[in-house]
Amino acid sequence: xxxxxxxxxxxxxxxxxxxxxxxxxxxxxxxxxxxxxxxxxxxxxxxxxxxxxxxxxxxxxxxxxxxxxxxxxxxxxxxxxxxxxxxxxxxxxxxxxxxxxxxxxxxxxxxxxxxxxxxxxxxxxxxxxxxxxxxxxxxxxxxxxxxxxxxxxxxxxxxxxxxxxxxxxxxxxxxxxxxxxxxxxxxxxxxxxxxxxxxxxxxxxxxxxxxxxxxxxxxxxxxxxxxxxxxxxxxxxxxxxxxxxxxxxxxxxxxxxxxxxxxxxxxxxxxxxxxxxxxxxxxxxxxxxxxxxxxxxxxxxxxxxxxxxxxxxxxxxxxxx
Amino acid sequence: xxxxxxxxxxxxxxxxxxxxxxxxxxxxxxxxxxxxxxxxxxxxxxxxxxxxxxxxxxxxxxxxxxxxxxxxxxxxxxxxxxxxxxxxxxxxxxxxxxxxxxxxxxxxxxxxxxxxxxxxxxxxxxxxxxxxxxxxxxxxxxxxxxxxxxxxxxxxxxxxxxxxxxxxxxxxxxxxxxxxxxxxxxxxxxxxxxxxxxxxxxxxxxxxxxxxxxxxxxxxxxxxxxxxxxxxxxxxxxxxxxxxxx
Lengths: 321, 246
Ligand SMILES: Cc1cc2nc3c(=O)[nH]c(=O)nc-3n(C[C@H](O)[C@H](O)[C@H](O)COP(=O)(O)OP(=O)(O)OC[C@H]3O[C@@H](n4cnc5c(N)ncnc54)[C@H](O)[C@@H]3O)c2cc1C
What we know:
By secondary structure, chain A is an alpha/beta fold. Chain A is 27% helix and 27% strand. Chain A has 2 domains: 2-171, 3-Layer(aba) Sandwich (Rossmann fold); 200-319, TPP-binding domain (Rossmann fold, 3-Layer(aba) Sandwich). Chain A is elongated, with a radius of gyration of 21 Å. The mean pLDDT of chain A is 96. Chain B contains 6 helices and 15 strands. Chain B has one domain: Rossmann fold, CATH 3.40.50.620. In chain B, strands 11-10-9-12-8-1-6-7-13 form a 9-stranded mixed sheet, sandwiched between helices. A two-stranded antiparallel sheet of chain B has the order 2-5. A two-stranded antiparallel ribbon of chain B has the order 3-4.
């Protein structure tokens, strides 16, 4: 018996912070079940780094024909690893690729699946885990009753926990079926922090009046190493790309810090960003609903506050470098 | 071209979420139900294929009789027929089994769904349906074109998008981008009248096995009040020393 974690790596073979988070989480569940943790990786180059988070055993698949993500192929590899290691719990990051492949794995293993888990299981028998529901407006305690359980972990919910073990890495050579889906082209911005990975997100709303005013938002984001985001009307108006739309019907945000500029705080907006740990609002209207959801707020005009904040942060960064 | 659109019946996005019976049941008092917003993008794209490429569109929902107004709304928007599988949607896997049964009997080329429903946010039904049927599957779809037997699909990826192609049959889980917000249709009077005459077939479930269940709900812990700060110096100081996020 074991707990299996799938730790995704980038196309360069590097792990993201969330890979360490799923490994940390898997280690804790393995302890709850008094069993071992096995971490599966595909074309990863830094497998040793997983030992820091409790990976006693790493199975690495290195195949040159697996250079780009393919959900069905990856799901089949995870299934084969789960069977080989007699895994009773399989943990997959609830990120964009993890959400794609986990349901496929669940069917292949005839397993119940709970996505977007936010805590370790409150009990392992029955196996019950708390997960996000109603677009962050609530949680449900979900019991998985199948022999094998699939758990998707929501970002930034458990955290990265150091737990150094002496681990080993083995090569794993599963059968790889040819995929029917062909990747024609990929467009990816490099060097820019994405909303999914960002520790800090700077977000602008309709209060910013027009796309020409986003220069200061981007400057603020650059200083903070943050991703930029926006409210739904801003993307609907074409001021910003759809990929920046956050909220109940856009991307979820679970950053450490979320700064909302000229955003009123409609229920659908708040639902999507509520998992962020610290929220700051900057709005001219002291009655804006966002102030009820935020931790810190400035009642003021963004066109004055943001340039001042940028200057102050430059000073701060220079002193704290 | 035969299209099946999966429709989830969910509380409207403005709904206050409350629970009853000691936090074990969702409290639907005063809650307005709508077509799941992600499914609306899928349905609208299906209507486009109907208008431009002569597709026929069936909508399906797994639910008890209370979901029928939502299916009628989909018919009013322009779907040709509706199927309701008469059982409560509790577990995503079980829902996927029912949909795949409906799909097997209907011989659909394309199954369109939203990438998640905004009530349980499971995000699992489309991928499970595809795997049960052994159809191709693309998640987080932001563009879909069909030509003959071939589908060309844009998928959102972290920090960008990728263009994929494959043969039908296919299951697509969509989001905004599949169509634009402005393309979403509101049913008109004629649509509503016609919807009353369109077939809505109720079928019984084939499977009652649940792999997951919800035993209770929780609401997020109450938040402490927002600290209003007067200037950016104080804000930076608090974010650094108190919140420790910069
Ligand atoms: C089905 C559905 C789904 C939705 N999903 C989402 C979603 O996912 N995400 C989302 O964001 N919205 C969503 N919405 C829309 C949501 O209801 C709000 O309309 C939207 O969030 C408002 O965007 P906003 O705050 O940018 O604009 P507004 O509500 O117009 O607010 C602008 C704010 O800027 C402030 N302001 C004006 N000038 C300044 C200034 N100079 N400096 C500082 N502040 C200023 C104003 O006081 C105001 O509070 C959804 C709506 C529906 C019906």
